[in-house]
Structure formats: structure tokens, C-alpha cells
């Protein structure tokens, strides 16, 4: 690699997109590392009222960026960045224990083909009378965050953002990973998304990925150093590619 490429400035703008049943505050450990290392980090707060609303929320934050942007999605957030990532400002994508459907696919259908522990746990997901879903609070620590301190996992179980049932079954109309460089992280002990499904997504997208052994679905909170390292490596890669 030419010396000037090796020394190229990384993409500085990073947008973090959370998954279902949680909010952007879970990104705080990763945010702290990225900010310390000089990145401009923004987070999307999705309403989780519909897939279209959540994609719009992501696009709104992308529009606020002042240049090339690395889009990072966790879990359901992977579907959001796959749809929103076709935006010209988006230089690349990082999937963190995330879904990455193709055009015409939805994560619910794909999850049924490679079921997770969650999918095999009867009654784990509750649905309100008006069609919003949440993970049964007493099961949240065990399924979503078994490697998280108990008090924190319990708090997150009780502060869930209820997600409209339809968000998981909306087929995508764009697949940014087909045209944008992508990277992935597999949570080795994920109970929410089957780790084999995560591998399938990343291999199909030709995205280099790491596996964090023993990590739960909350890998972005419990292993922030490893997650931030992948994000920073992707940002450096994109910066070099633009030279």
C-alpha cells in the first residue's frame, strides 16, 4: 500500500443505530471509546413505531453529517442500515450481531429459517393489545444480556422501547451491503439472533467479520473495546480507499 494511503485520515463521522426493545443509550460504552479516539459520533433514536419511521429517523441523522459517514447497526438496526445505507453520504456499514436482509426479505422470515434460542422459547415475546412487542422482563436478562451485570440487565428489561410488531416483517426495498463496503461482528453466544444467521448474512455480503466468543446479544455493551476496534478499523479502511 502506498505510504499516503496507509496514513490516510479515517472517515470521521459515525452513526450508531440501535436495535429493537432498547434505545441509543446502550451505545454509551462504544461512544466513549470512539469520542476519545477523535471520531464524530451521532446516535439514532428510533421510535420503533414502523420500519419506515425507523429508517426515516436514521436518514434524518445521516443528513446531519458533514461528509462521508460510517453507519453501524445492532440487531434490528442492521435492517435499518441496510435500507438507509444507500444514501450517498454513507461510505460503509458495520453490522453488530445484526440482521442484513436482501431486497424482498425481512428479518422475521429469515429468523424463522435459522431460529434462535428466543424463537424456541414459548411466550418470551409479549404483544400489547395495540400490536407492540416486548421481551418478557423476567426473561430479558437471560436472553438479551446474560453477560451483563444483573442490575443493569434488569433496568434495561424495565425500560424497553416497545416495537411495533410489523417492524420485523417489513420486506426491504434496498440492500446497501450490495454496493457499500461492510464489516460484521458475530456474538458467539447470542440468544436473540442465531449466530449462524449472523455468519450467513456477513458471508453473503462478503463482509469480513469477527466472532466474540461467549458474547451475548448485548455485545456492544459488554465488549465495547472489541466492537469499537472493528468500527475504527472500518473507518480507517474507508479513509484509505478514498485516497
Write the layout of secondary structure elements.
Blueprint: H1 3-6, E1 13-17, H2 28-36, E2 40-44, H3 51-63, E3 69-74, H4 77-84, E4 90-96, H5 107-113, E5 125-127, E6 132-135, H6 140-143, H7 150-158, E7 163-164, E8 182-187, H8 195-204, E9 209-212, H9 219-222, H10 224-241
Helix pairs in contact: 2-10, 3-4
Architecture overview:
The N terminus is likely disordered. The longest helix is centred in the last third of the chain and has 18 residues. Helices cover 35% and strands 17% of the residues. The chain contains 10 helices and 9 strands. The strands form 2 sheets. The chain has a 6-stranded parallel beta sheet, with helices on both faces. Strands 5-6-7 form a 3-stranded antiparallel beta sheet, with no helix packed on it. With 243 residues, it is an alpha/beta fold. It has one domain: Alpha/Beta hydrolase fold, catalytic domain (Rossmann fold, 3-Layer(aba) Sandwich).
What CATH architecture would you give? Answer: 3-Layer(aba) Sandwich
Multimerization state: single chain
Number of helices: 10
**Weakly predicted, low-confidence segments:** 1-6
**Which H/E pattern describes the elements?**
HEHEHEHEHEEHHEEHEHH
- Percentage of residues in DSSP E strands: 15-25%
Biggest beta-sheet profile: 6 strands, parallel
- The CA-CA distance between the termini, in Å, is 11 Å
Q: What top-tier CATH class fits best?
A: Alpha Beta
Radius of gyration: 17 Å
Percent of residues in helices comes to 25-40%
By helix and strand content, what is the structural category?
A: alpha/beta
Q: Strand sequence of the main sheet, in spatial order?
A: 2-1-3-4-8-9
User: Total number of β-strand segments?
Assistant: 9
CATH homologous superfamily - what is it?
Answer: Alpha/Beta hydrolase fold, catalytic domain
Mean pLDDT over the full residue set = 95
The overall number of domains is 1
Look up the CATH topology: Rossmann fold
Quick one: overall form? globular
